[in-house]
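Deadline looming. Please check this record:
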Amino acid sequence: MYVFESMDKLRAWQNAPEQKDLALLRDRSSDFHAFAVEGLAN
């Protein structure tokens, strides 16, 4: 589980060049579903 302070920070992480490279490897080696939920208490 990843926790971000805001959806903007989540999107910045998702769109980071480092994540793009890792996503290629991840997507070739696994099958998963991801989703984001706003408003949960920490």
Q: What stands out?
A: The two ends are 12 Å apart (CA to CA). Helices lie at 7-14, 17-29. The chain has two helices and no strands. The CA atoms of residues 25 and 40 lie 30 Å apart.
